[in-house]
Design brief:
By secondary structure, this protein is of the alpha/beta class. It folds into three domains: about 120 residues, 3-Layer(aba) Sandwich (D-Maltodextrin-Binding Protein, domain 2), CATH 3.40.190.10; about 90 residues, D-Maltodextrin-Binding Protein, domain 2 (3-Layer(aba) Sandwich); about 70 residues, Alpha-Beta Plaits (2-Layer Sandwich), CATH 3.30.70. About 25% of the residues lie in helices and about 35% in strands. It has eight helices and 15 strands. The strands form three sheets. It has a six-stranded mixed sheet. A five-stranded mixed sheet has the order 8-7-9-6-10. The protein has a four-stranded antiparallel sheet with strand order 13-14-12-15. It binds adenosine-5'-triphosphate and zinc ion (ZN).
C-alpha cells in the first residue's frame, strides 16, 4: 500500500515540491515523464496535476494528500484539511487600483468592478467589510483589466509588485498571505494516516533544520561562561578543550532569527574562528 500525493505538474511549486521530498530522503523515479511516478525508498505514489485541480483530487480521495498554495485551497473551498505549512511558494493575494487614484480604505471599492481569478476569496473579503462591489472573474492577465477599461480594480497574486507597477497600478490591500501547504483527505484510512505521520515527521525535521544553523567557535576559557550563556544549544552547548592551553572549542545550534545578534555578542566576548554550517536534518 502506498500514500498518494498530488503535486503541481509544472509551475512555481513543482521544483520546491520535489526538492522537499528529496530533502526528506524520498527519491522519485522518472520525474521526467511526469504523469505519475513512485518512490523506491518510501511507499509513495506521486501524481503530477494542475495546481487548481489538487484540492478536488484530494477531496475525491484520488490522492490522499497534496502540496498546494493556500490561495488555491481557500478559493476552491473543497473538503480538505490543511495539515502543515511547507515554507515555500510564498506570495500574497492583493488588491490593486490605478496608481493615480486616491485610496484611503476598502470603501474605495464600493460599487466598483474588481477583476480577479479569485472570486470566492474576494467575495468573502467584501462581505466581511460589508462592501457591495461587482466581481468580474477572468482567468489570466488580470493586471491589464483596469488599463483596457474592463475593471476599476484587480485582486491578484503579487510577489514583488513589479507587474502591478508596469500596468500603472498600485498595491493597496493584502487580503491573504499564502504559502504552499500540505492538505489531506478528511477520511484518511488508518494505514494511510500512519504513512502520512511518517512523512510529516520528516517534513518537520527538514523545516527545523532549515531554520537552524550549527555553530562552532573557539573561546578563551576566561569568557567561557558568558559565551555559553549566549548559546542555548539543543540541551546545552558542547565544550571541548583545544590543544592551545586556555582555549576551548564550543559547539551549538542557533536559530536563523537570533543568529546575527548572537554572533555580534560572541565576538564581543572574544570568540574566534566562528564557523556556521547548515544542518541537513534536525530531530529533537
Ligand atoms: P497550473 O498550470 O498548475 O494551473 P498556474 O499558472 O496556476 O499553474 P503558477 O503560476 O505556477 O500557477 O503558480 C502556482 C502557485 O505558486 C500559486 O497558486 C501560488 O500559490 C504560488 N506562487 C508563489 N509565488 C507566486 C507569484 N509570484 N505569483 C503567482 N503565484 C505564486
Ligand atoms: Zn493554476
Amino acid at each position: 500500500m502506498k500514500l498518494k500525493l498530488a503535486i503541481q505538474k509544472s509551475g512555481r511549486l513543482s521544483e520546491d515540491s520535489i526538492k522537499l521530498l528529496k530533502d526528506c530522503g524520498i527519491d522519485l523515479r522518472n520525474v521526467k515523464d511526469r504523469l505519475k511516478t513512485e518512490s523506491d525508498n518510501f511507499p509513495l505514489e506521486v501524481f503530477f496535476l494542475r495546481d487548481d485541480d489538487i484540492p478536488q483530487y484530494v477531496d475525491d480521495g484520488v490522492a490522499d494528500i497534496g502540496f498546494v498554495g493556500e490561495n488555491v485551497v481557500y478559493e476552491k473551498n473543497k473538503k480538505v484539511e490543511v495539515v502543515e505549512k511547507l515554507g515555500f511558494g510564498k506570495c500574497r493575494l492583493s488588491i490593486g487600483v490605478k496608481r493615480n487614484d486616491e485610496y484611503i480604505n476598502a470603501n474605495y471599492l464600493v460599487n466598483k468592478k474588481i477583476a480577479t481569478s479569485y472570486p470566492v476569496i474576494v467575495e468573502k473579503f467584501l462581505k466581511e467589510k460589508n462592501i457591495v462591489a461587482e466581481i468580474h472573474e477572468i482567468s489570466g492577465s488580470v493586471e491589464i483589466a483596469p488599463g483596457i477599461g474592463l475593471a476599476d480594480a484587480i485582486c491578484d497574486l503579487v510577489s514583488s509588485g513589479s507587474t502591478l507597477f508596469m500596468n500603472g497600478l498600485k498595491e493597496v490591500e493584502t487580503i491573504l498571505q499564502s504559502q504552499a501547504v500540505l492538505v489531506k483527505n478528511k477520511n484518511l484510512g488508518d494505514a494511510q494516516q500512519k504513512l502520512l505521520d511518517k512523512l510529516l515527521f520528516r517534513i518537520q525535521s527538514v523545516k527545523k533544520a532549515k531554520n537552524n544553523k550549527y555553530i562552532l567557535l573557539n573561546a578563551p576559557n576566561e569568557n567561557l561562561q558568558q559565551i555559553i550563556s549566549l548559546l542555548p544549544g539543543m540541551k546545552s552547548p558542547t565544550v571541548l578543550p583545544l590543544a592551545t592551553p586556555g582555549w576551548s572549542s564550543v559547539h551549538s545550534v542557533l536559530s536563523e532569527n537570533e543568529f546575527w545578534d548572537i554572533i555580534e555578542q560572541l565576538k564581543a566576548n572574544g570568540a574566534q574562528g566562528i564557523l556556521v554550517v547548515p544542518i541537513e536534518k534536525m530531530i529533537i
